[in-house]
Amino acid sequence: MKHKLILLIIPILLTILGCSEEKWFVPTEKNILISHALGGINSTVYTNSKDAFILNYDKGYRWFEVDITLLKDGNLVCFHEGHEKHLGIGNRKITDLTIKEFESLKYDGKYQQISFKTFLEIANQKKGIYIVTDTKLWNTEIMDKFIKEVNAVDSDLFKKIIPQIYKEEDMNLIEKVDKNHTRFASLIFTLYAMDSKKIPNENILAAVKKYGIPIVTMPRWDYIRLTKEFIKQLHDEHIYTFTHTINNSKDAGKMYEMGIDGLYTDFYMEQKDSGNRKK
Fold first, then answer.
1. Spatial distance between the Cα atoms of 139 and 118, rounded to a whole number of angstroms
2. 195 partner at 20 to 30 Å CA-CA among 22, 58, 202, 262?
3. pTM for the complete prediction?
């Protein structure tokens, strides 16, 4: 009888433990502000710097988007390709640098450049944050290094990380590392790289429904995507919506009127009941 009871209890315990893992979440707060490229600093944007991150965290941001680039020596760093002129490295590309060279640089001679690992170490000490990653693409090499670097700092950080994907095929890699949708905090399908004239909105809607993607980001300039009708279709599927990049209250008001839930922004804006303001 005792053995039969144990056999009955084990499946129940496994079910309870399995259910305890949190799935990718859909934000419930309205007007979330994501600090774009770790946020603006002294009128400068795209620095992805330690200085910008600390400044904007202290201002009250709790969601941070960070650009991630792979160097020639295999290290991941916080940098947006195409902004090399701000590093004073002449005609060299960021991908030509080693980690030692990169970490010696300052954006516009002022703002300290950091590796992705260093950023994670700093972020791990901050309460209540979410990290939205922008790798521009996903492949096996980038994903493997990404997972390795997060694990090297603290595997619990995965629950603060929200990767962005850029096309439906990216889900193949995401599901290899997060098959049950419980490793990362959530997932964003960002649409800036998808031609809305070639890939219709119904394709996007079908993809997010198929894979259970909780969040969609649309660029502000794409008026085929950014419509009240499409936003409502996403909301009807309980999908949260962001747009980028918004830096004044007038534009923010227009986006909210259309139904957009949250914004990527370079500079801090006072928004009533903002979901990412420091409590």
1. 22
2. 262
3. 0.90
